[in-house]
Design a protein that fits this description.
GO molecular function, one term: phosphorelay sensor kinase activity
EC number: 2.7.13.3
Protein name: histidine kinase
CATH architecture of the largest domain: Up-down Bundle
Largest sheet: 5 strands, antiparallel
Strand order of the largest sheet: 2-1-5-4-3
Number of strands: 12
Distance between the termini: 65 Å
Radius of gyration: 47 Å
Structural class: alpha+beta
Number of helices: 20
Strand content: 5-15%
Pfam family, one: PAS
Keywords: ATP-binding, Coiled coil, Kinase, Membrane, Nucleotide-binding, Phosphoprotein, Transferase, Transmembrane, Transmembrane helix, Two-component regulatory system
């Protein structure tokens, strides 16, 4: 099952048709009071029959009810906006919560004022229009300022501070109480002109500000924040705009139909915002539930993959403390998850000789991640290393590393694959290739042994025939030299045929090359002349038998490449030199060369150009694997008709080499 990502609310857009329908519906609601007035409805709430004749009381009751309703909705919206701000720290909710708080607070105070709960107004006919005018202007200016701040990114940071919001709340609350309190005792100017076209001209500036917000600022705010909440804010300006229109052009006295329509539309504006917030919370909750389900499903999948992975997966922090350990790691290293989590990976799993190398790989990964400014994760490897089993045995593994999390405190994930079977296979392939090589050189080795053996027997016969002591001593010394030559040949054969790999140690490349030249001398002499340039070089970190095998294979291949021509036409050159920090061995021949189309394939396992039965196709593949295990390289340069040059490059030994293992036992 493919989980489709649920888009954040901020990225959703309302379809144009639905948006147009919302605007049309809201405009219709704003026009309905005008139709009702034209049909003669008073738009006042009904009162008990005993007070039916008290029109002023009915109007006051309607006015107070609408004010209280609008104020309660505004304060409720302000509370929801504040809660949303505390969760999301959005500049939009910060500004709107302040505006709604102001609007709701003032509306409730006005309602209480009209009922005489707080103040006793001296001129109720002018008090209500005047306080409406003052509060509408302040409300319009506050909405305009909020819109400007929301479209000015540099100023939005201040809006995200709770202290800033509380300060604005206190300021506007104090201002509202002060203005409404003073208006109850002062002689107020006449704000209503029943016979003029603009019945309430003082409200015209607020109308223009609301128009600017409705058609200029809030559409841009909605495009920037793109949510149901921002859409509700935009729509809420329309009832405020319509309310101003009813008062300016239709209300000739307080509590008439246009007056009540204006206050009803003002309450509708708060209801639109409140509905938008509720709808936004419903959609947000739905989204969060969907995301929780998605996260749960993904966690289940990740846990299934983690537990069922064939590779060992280990996660540890920057201090090496293990945090995650999967079942495959238990199978590979023996430790149970309860016994290993919380302990240090370096001290438990990595042999002391390999710890510097492992640490270098981690540092290289961190450095690469920092230099490339990667904030998610970075990968390193694969590389081969030796780990420890719980029982103390060594386990050859191939590692890949990943780093994620903060740059200063990364979390590392290690993926380990058991190489024991592959190592055994490589060891068997190496041994098989050695046996093939020894078999190929059997005749030459027999000749090498036969010469000193004949020399030995002849000198032993001379001892029997010698007449004086000096002659016997000379013959005995010559026989000992012949036996020493035989011993060296047998020693070289035993070195080459050794089955077990030795730990890497300091090796003289000249000594390994000398053994290879002695083992292949008869084969080379039958087909070519040999030319050597052997320089005094630094030692390298290697396994001497396997390095010797590499040179034997390369020399044998060179001799075989020349076997179809006369001996005097053929030449094999061997060069040993040191260049910079590399010890280099070049083995060249002047044979037919290697075709360009197969130069990349000659190092692949089982690839051979020799007739069936004369080659295994493993020699060059194993040679490259052996050289690369010594952190070196094996390359070839060849042009058809101009011979071939195989180049072995090995890093010279330095006392700080991190890969140096314990020294191998000396050759006997």
């Amino acid at each position: 099952m493919t989980v489709q990502p649920y888009p954040p609310i901020a990225q959703r857009t309302t379809p144009p048709g639905r948006l147009a329908a919302l605007f049309a519906l809201l405009i219709l609601v704003c026009v309905l009071p005008a139709l009702a007035i034209a049909m003669g409805f008073s738009l006042s709430l009904p009162l008990p029959s005993a007070a039916e004749t008290l029109g002023t009381l009915r109007g006051a009751f309607t006015h107070s009810t609408l004010l209280m309703l609008g104020g309660i909705l505004a304060l409720s919206s302000a509370t929801l906006s504040l809660a949303r701000f505390l969760v999301r720290r959005s500049a939009l909710t910060s500004v709107i919560s302040i505006t709604l708080f102001w609007s709701g607070f003032v509306a409730i105070i006005q309602a209480l004022t009209v009922d005489g709960a707080l103040y006793a107004a001296r001129d109720i006919e002018n008090y209500i229009p005047f306080t409406w005018t003052i509060t509408r202007h302040l409300n319009a200016l506050l909405i305009l300022g909020a819109g400007v701040l929301l479209l000015w990114p540099r100023r939005q940071l201040a809006l995200l501070r709770p202290g800033f919001m509380l300060g604005v709340f206190a300021l506007f609350g104090t201002l509202a109480l002060t203005l409404l309190g003073l208006a109850s005792y002062l002689d107020l100017p006449q704000t209503t002109r029943p016979d003029a076209i603009l019945i309430r001209p003082w409200d015209l500036p607020a109308l223009l500000i609301f128009a600017l917000c409705a058609f200029g600022l809030f559409p841009r705010i909605h495009r920037r924040f793109r949510s149901h909440f921002s859409l509700a804010l935009w729509l809420s300006i329309l009832p405020l705009l319509a309310a101003q229109g009813y008062l300016i052009f239709g209300s000739t006295q307080i509590f008439d139909a246009a007056f009540n329509a204006a206050y009803g539309l003002s309450a509708l504006s708060s209801a639109v915002i409140f509905s938008g917030l509720i709808f936004d919370y419903i959609r947000s909750t739905s989204q969060e539930q969907h995301l929780l389900r998605t996260i749960s499903e993904r966690e289940t999948r990740i846990r299934t993959m983690f537990d069922g992975a064939a590779e060992a997966i280990i996660a540890f922090d920057n201090d090496g403390v293990i945090e995650l350990w999967n079942p495959a790691a238990t199978l590979l290293f023996g430790w149970r998850v309860d016994d290993i989590v919380g302990r240090n990976i370096t001290t438990l799993l990595i042999p002391r000789a390999h710890r510097p190398y492992f640490t270098d790989q981690l540092e290289r990964l961190v450095t690469d991640r920092t230099s490339r400014n990667i904030h998610s994760y970075a990968l390193g490897g694969p590389f081969e290393i030796v780990f420890l089993h719980q029982d103390g045995n060594e386990v050859h593994v191939e590692l890949s590393l990943a780093a994620s999390g903060p740059q200063d405190e990364p979390i590392f994930t290690l993926f380990a694959r058991d190489l024991s079977a592959r190592k055994q296979m490589q060891l068997r392939m190496t041994q098989m290739d050695r046996m093939i090589t020894i078999g190929t050189m059997a005749a030459g080795v027999g000749h090498e042994i036969n010469n000193p053996l004949t020399y030995l027997i002849a000198n032993l016969d001379l001892i029997d025939e010698a007449e004086d002591q000096e002659e016997r001593h000379h013959s005995l010394e010559s026989a000992r030299q012949g036996a020493e030559r035989i011993r060296r040949i047998v020693d070289d054969l035993r070195l080459l045929s050794g089955f077990q790999e030795q730990p890497r140690h300091k090796v003289s490349v000249a000594d390994a090359l000398d053994v290879a030249l002695r083992m292949t001398r008869q084969l080379i002499q039958r087909s070519a002349s040999l030319h050597q340039t052997i320089a005094d070089t630094s030692p390298v970190l290697a396994d001497e038998p396997r390095l010797t095998q590499v040179f034997i294979n390369l020399l044998t291949n060179a001799a075989h490449a020349l076997s179809n021509r006369a001996r005097h036409e053929n030449r094999i050159d061997v060069h040993l030199l040191e260049l910079d920090d590399q010890v280099i061995v070049e083995i060249s021949d002047n044979g037919p060369g290697i075709p360009l189309d197969i130069q990349d394939a000659i190092f692949e396992p089982f690839f051979t150009t020799k007739p069936a039965g004369e080659g295994s196709g493993l020699g060059l593949s194993l040679c490259r694997q052996i050289v690369e295990s010594f952190e070196g390289s094996l390359t070839v340069e060849s042009q058809p008709g101009k011979g071939a040059t195989f180049r072995v490059s090995l890093p010279r030994y330095t006392p700080t080499s991190s890969a140096e293992a314990d020294s191998a036992p000396p050759r006997e």
